[in-house]
Q: What sequence folds into this?
């Protein structure tokens, strides 16, 4: 086991006073707090910083740590073991920031007993509720228009004889109709087991709608880009357009513009206040193929139409 | 499976102090979706998640409610803008040829 230099973790001098330690902690906590920093390594860094602060902010605990540090823990490159018969007396001042799994092996080997007793005293011997777990669940748009059951697999951190292990779990979860991006489904008691007789934490499923190859989501409305030929935009047409539940015929009026949005009522996603709409956005596409005849026809059209698409620039 | 949580459950099951629930509503960190009087309030589970986030920030950063509410507000804005940005980029990709 490696000795942890908590002063180095917080970037303070071993002689630093309580105020300097608090300032250093707050600065680092602000940077690495996992609720504001999405970087994958931020949570581990925050735990390291918080663990250091947990020890150094408490006078009794800091004194014990300093004693161990003097005992030889700070020798670089050598493994660390607490002195034989070592037992911490610093029981108090634990504020419930962590569960047992969050502490390093180093911390537990020094303050383990004291930490557990402090926990017990806080919760009247009932132990501490297990931690909540949050996982992202990808949902296809097609799955939001009817109730489905979806298998969800995740890992639960459990402490077995002081060692952190992971238990794999799979649940079959009913996904309600009309679930939307960012919503969270709570499954009570499916998180980390509680300590002692305390209840388990919860499992939160964070819904992420899988990007669809054809449809974009705007609230409860869907948007589909519909490619049309120039003559379809000019003369009008009826085109077949896919929806989440089969195809429909869409009427394009004569003299339509590229970028125009056509509304198809109640073909969007289900919402609390009814069903959203489908918007078809027209995209005029030039044909790939051309020959002398088509070029001649375009020239003829050009002469007849007398159209300057950049007329606005001249104003 | 839950999409909403009652005020009572939030206080008892989630072990959140009644005064804290009133604070998070007062500072608009979470808003009840139903219920006229406090006892009949219900919150979306998404908001429950924001409440827990707010409590962690308040405890870990040792900051007051105004600071917590400001951070939560900015985090919500950032999340919403990131989502809008992703959606608009996707629409642009569909509309314009490379």
A:
């Amino acid at each position: 086991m490696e000795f942890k230099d908590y002063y180095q973790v917080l970037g303070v001098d071993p002689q630093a006073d309580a105020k300097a330690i608090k300032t250093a902690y707050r600065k680092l906590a602000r940077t690495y707090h996992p609720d504001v920093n999405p970087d994958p390594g931020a949570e581990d860094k925050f735990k390291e910083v918080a663990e250091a602060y947990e020890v150094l902010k408490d006078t009794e605990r800091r004194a014990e740590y300093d004693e161990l540090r003097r005992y030889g823990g700070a020798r670089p490159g050598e493994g660390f073991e607490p002195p034989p018969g070592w037992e911490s007396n610093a029981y108090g001042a634990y504020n419930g920031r962590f569960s047992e799994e969050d502490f390093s092996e180093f911390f537990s080997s020094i303050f383990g007993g004291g930490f557990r007793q402090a926990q017990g005293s806080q919760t009247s011997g009932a132990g501490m509720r297990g931690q909540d777990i949050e996982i992202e669940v990808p949902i296809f748009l097609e799955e939001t228009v009817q109730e489905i059951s979806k298998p969800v697999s995740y890992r639960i951190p459990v402490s077995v004889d002081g060692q952190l292990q992971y238990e794999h779990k799979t649940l079959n979860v009913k996904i309600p109709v009309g679930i939307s991006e960012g919503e969270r489904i709570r499954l009570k008691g499916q998180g980390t087991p509680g300590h002692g007789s305390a209840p388990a934490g919860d499992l939160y499923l964070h819904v992420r709608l899988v990007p669809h190859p054809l449809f974009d989501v705007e609230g409860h409305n869907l948007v589909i880009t519909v490619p049309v030929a120039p003559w379809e935009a000019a003369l009008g047409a009826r085109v077949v357009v896919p929806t989440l539940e089969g195809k429909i015929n869409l009427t394009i009026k004569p003299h339509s513009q590229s970028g125009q949005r056509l509304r198809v009522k109640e073909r969007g996603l289900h919402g609390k206040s009814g069903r959203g709409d489908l918007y078809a956005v027209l995209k005029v596409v030039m044909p790939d193929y051309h020959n002398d005849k088509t070029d001649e026809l375009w020239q003829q059209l050009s002469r007849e139409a007398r159209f300057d698409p950049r007329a606005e620039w001249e104003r | 499976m839950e999409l909403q949580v009652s005020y009572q459950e939030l206080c008892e099951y989630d072990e959140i102090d009644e005064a804290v629930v009133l604070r998070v509503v007062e500072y608009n960190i979470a808003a009840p979706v139903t219920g006229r009087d406090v006892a009949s309030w219900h919150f979306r589970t998404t908001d429950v998640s924001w409440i827990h986030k707010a409590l962690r920030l308040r405890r870990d950063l040792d900051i007051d409610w105004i600071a917590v509410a400001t951070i939560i507000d900015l985090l919500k804005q950032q999340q919403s803008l990131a989502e809008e940005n992703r959606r608009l980029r996707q629409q642009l990709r569909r509309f314009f040829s490379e």
Notes: Chain A touches chain B at residues 22, 26, 29-30, 33, 35-36, 46, 50, 95, 97, 129, 132, 134, 173-174, 176, 181-188, 204, 206, 211, 216-218, 223, 225, 259, 281, 283 (CB under 8 Å). Chain A has three domains: 6-122, 133-209, 215-305. The two ends of chain A are 77 Å apart (CA to CA). Residues 91-96, 113-125 of chain A have pLDDT under 50 and may be disordered.
